[in-house]
Amino acid sequence: MWRADPVGRAAHIHSAEDARRLARRRLPWMVFDYIDGAAGRETGAARNRAALDAIPLIPRILRDVSVRDLSVPLFAGQAGRPFGIAPMGMCNLSGPGSDLMLARLAAREKVPLGVSTVASTPLEKLIEVAEGQAWFQLYFSGDGSGTFRLAERARDAGYEVLILTVDVPELGRRPRELRHGFTMPFRLGPRQFLDFALHPTWSLRTLLHGRPEMANFQMPGYAFDRTESRARATWDTLARLREMWPGKLVVKGVLDVEDAVRLAASGVDAIQVSSHGARQLESAPPPIEALARIRAAVGPEMAVFYDSGLRSGEDVLKALSQGADFTFLGRILQFAIAAAGEEGLQRLWDVLSTELSAAMAQTGRCSLSEGVPIAPVPVRSSARGA
């Protein structure tokens, strides 16, 4: 029976798909489709899911796997899990205070919180609540002047890791958003009004707590336009950012081997293989298939991270098997919050951890620190047999 309280709803979350299903019932259509949608006809998301499903994990037997360690080394420290929280814009759309829920989770679990350029909560507040477990994600936009001001602000706030996202020179077209007239900030017309009226719980809570805003742009002389071109970023931009940023620099949104090799030679500290959750270029290759090729090209010493399409602990183990040192989870965490608030978020995190631990046991692993042997990615032939 459906329970109205968050604890009761959280008990219904046994997988990421459960969280998505419950979130779909509770969120306005416009908000759900913003979080869930992908580029174009969404074939890119389907291809990535199929590629992940095709990777096997080989069971091993008669090994003592009674004690398992889910922590992994990450830069100079240790992360409590091999997955962290991807930077996601306007998380408070999934529920009031979502940014802070994710920050508290990062602090508890000792994993990085990716703080988006377009977060709903100021970057200074999020690193404080995350107890230092926060990385700032940066978009280049316009002529770059505001971009570098944000990087300086993050540096001054105590961020030690900067994530430069490079796969959005122009905003990808996501028809599900466009059909709803989704904009940041909201423009409320008749269609949106009806949508909100049919989801009164979300609407009343949002009204009570205030409309989510892009909190990092409350500074003089800098307004962020989500649709503004980001096409002027170049390798010279990266070099300039590397020169001014004293901490670790991650470049996110890499799918090409040649780009990855050049990045490794450019002094970045990590490469993040990602298709932006298939939200930008519909025809991009499945990033899970690019991961092993990039790992082979840059060698074992270069830090390689992964995000896009991970939905379970087994998916995380598959990404590690393809050469990732660390992974990031995105929209499924927002679904958990929309489904059952902070209780739902913790519940899904525990589910993912349990799934990973069980998969480690079944494949004969006690630890992830020594790496996961790379399994071959199935090759799909483009030709049909005669």
Describe what you observe in this structure:
The chain has one domain: Aldolase class I (TIM Barrel, Alpha-Beta Barrel). 42% of the residues lie in helices and 11% in strands. The chain has 15 helices and ten strands. It has helices at 6-10, 16-26, 29-36, 43-54, 98-109, 123-129, 145-157, 175-180, 190-197, 200-209, 235-244, 257-265, 287-298, 313-321, 331-362; strands spanning 72-74, 77-79, 83-85, 113-115, 134-139, 161-165, 248-254, 270-273, 303-306, 326-329. Helix 5 (98-109) runs parallel beside helix 15. The radius of gyration is 20 Å and the shape is globular.
Secondary-structure blueprint of this entry?
Elements lengths: L5 H5 L5 H11 L2 H8 L6 H12 L17 E3 L2 E3 L3 E3 L12 H12 L3 E3 L7 H7 L4 E6 L5 H13 L3 E5 L9 H6 L9 H8 L2 H10 L25 H10 L3 E7 L2 H9 L4 E4 L13 H12 L4 E4 L6 H9 L4 E4 L1 H32 L24
Parallel strand pairs: 3-10, 4-5, 5-6, 6-7, 7-8, 8-9, 9-10
Antiparallel strand pairs: 1-2
Helix pairs in contact: 2-15, 5-15, 12-13, 14-15
Report low-confidence residues grouped into runs of 5 or more. Answer: 381-386
Write the CATH homologous superfamily.
Aldolase class I
Number of strands: 10
How would you sum up the global shape? globular
Please give the radius of gyration in angstroms: 20 Å
The N- to C-terminal Cα distance equals 54 Å
Query: What's the quaternary structure here?
Result: single chain
Q: CATH top level? A: Alpha Beta
What's the CATH architecture name? Alpha-Beta Barrel
Q: How are the strands of the biggest sheet laid out side by side?
A: 3-10-9-8-7-6-5-4
Give the percentage of residues in beta strands.
5-15%
Q: Which structural class fits the helix and strand makeup?
A: alpha/beta
